Amino acid sequence: MSALVLRELRLAASGGNALLPLIFFLLVATLFPFAVGPDRPLLARAGGGALWMAALLAALLPVDRLVEPDRASGVLDQLALRGLGEETVALAKLAGHWLSFGPPLMLAAVPAAALMKLPGEVLERLELGLLVGTPGLAALTLMVSAFTAGLRGTGALAGLLMLPLAVPLLIFGAGLVEQGGTGALKLLAAVSLLLVAAAPFATAAAIRAARD
Amino acid sequence: MPDALLRLRGVACVRGGRLLFEGLSLRLDPGGAAVVTGPNGAGKSSLLRLAAGLLRADSGTVERGGAAALADEHAALDERLTLERALAFWARLDGARAEAGMAPLGLLPLRDVPVRMLSNGQRKRATLARVVASGAPLWLLDEPANGLDRDSAAALAEVMADHRRRGGAILAASHQPLGLEDSATVAL
Fold it and tell me: Each residue's pLDDT tens digit in chain A (212 positions)?
């Protein structure tokens, strides 16, 4: 299991795979003030929601590299031959993917918040929301990644599958940034937990289905 | 009588709505070997995947007496790693050493070459080295001699004979002669 998580981290690090979502996230944070103008109160009000939107779209980027390369190269078959359950493999992928996505995104949120001129307490709520919400985002990416493995031209399909499912994360995440309070945080945590709990089983089922 | 390493009873396989074979029975004891022959699309690879447990039989039963190692057209090696490190990943999972597979197939000189730079024949040898190092008693080899030069084919015959002497069994699908002595033939 630890060997599998390490392998995921190595794959994420190689060729700058893990950097792409971060660069995308920061790019959106840079472009947004250009789009709405440098009006500080407006930026502070809309910025948190915009950053959640950016995080959501950044989470979509690794969707084609999480499961499909391992399916096509036979790695998933070889792991199954060694008696590792697909659920174990999926859990290792989830852990590895979150480690290479969640904490770096939380780091990138600091300069992104500065670009949006977000006040300190808003940044705190954004970081708290990302800490609770990114596991859910990573789980969603992994599931969609497994659902679309083996299909051709999955880019648009992955977006269509994933973005509607991410709506609760977006609502509660942006709600937490805007108003604070424990209500939005608890709901965000509940949604995230549900996605994380479902991901190993849904991913494993999709991997098995892709084998036939 | 020792336990069979692989036992198929009345196995049928349907792929894409087409019946590939049915009523297939096969038993491989320690030291045994069988070669699957048949035209393209007859279901040779499917039979190997069935024996590996990666496909479900549509009828009949598949039993294995131990671990199985599969070498098919997928190398399952990380392209960016050097050959040694890519094989070491699997060797670690198998509790084995990568050199045990690399040495008999003449891959030690290539240990520092990235997997993506390997030729087809070298890739095939690397796939076989993964199987050799695995320590699994049952080897499932899909066209193991494809793309191998004469020396490598001889090395393959040598490791297969050695594996059988040590109580392993081999199920291979091949169009070419593999140099397997006293092997059964399964014609699909």
Answer: 888 999 999 999 887 888 999 999 999 999 999 998 888 888 888 888 999 999 999 999 999 899 999 999 999 999 999 989 999 999 999 999 999 999 999 999 999 999 988 999 999 999 999 999 999 999 999 999 999 998 887 778 888 999 999 999 999 999 999 887 789 999 999 999 999 999 999 999 999 998 87
Distance CA A27, CA A112 (A): 9
Taking the C-alpha atoms of residue A149 and residue A18, their distance in angstroms, rounded to an integer, is 19
Q: Is residue A67 within 8 Å of residue A207, measured between CB atoms?
A: yes
Q: Residue A211 and residue B93: Cβ atoms within 8 Å?
A: no
Residue that has been written with the tokens 């198998």 in this structure: B94
Sheet holding B18-28, edge to edge: B18-28, B6-15, B59-64
Name the phi and psi angles at B52, rounded to 5: -80, -15
Chain B nearest CA to A212, separation (Å): 7
Tell me which residue of A34, A100, A119 sits closest to A61, measured CA to CA.
A100
Residues A150 and A73: their CA atoms lie apart, in Å, by 11
The radius of gyration of chain B from alpha carbons, rounded to an integer in Å, stands at: 16
| Torsion on CA atoms A69, A75, A79, A82, rounded to nearest 10 | 170
DSSP classification of residue A119? -
Contact B52 A81 (CB under 8 A): yes
Distance in angstroms (rounded) separating the CA atoms of residues A122 and A125: 5
How far CA B4 is from CA of A96, A134, B23, in Å, comes to 39, 49, 19
Residue B12 structure tokens: 């049928």
**In chain A, what's the furthest Cα-to-Cα distance?**
59
The verdict on a CB contact (< 8 Å) between B70 and A77 is yes
pTM for this predicted structure: 0.91
Phi, psi of B25 (to 5 degrees): -125, 145
Asked if A11 reaches chain B (Cβ–Cβ under 8 Å), the answer is yes
CA distances from B36 to A211, B18, B42, B172, B179 (A): 22, 19, 10, 6, 14
| Residue numbers in B near A77 (CB within 8 A) | 49, 52, 54, 70, 72, 74, 76
CB pairs under 8 A between A and B: 51
In A, which residues are within 8 Å of B14 by CB distance?
A: none
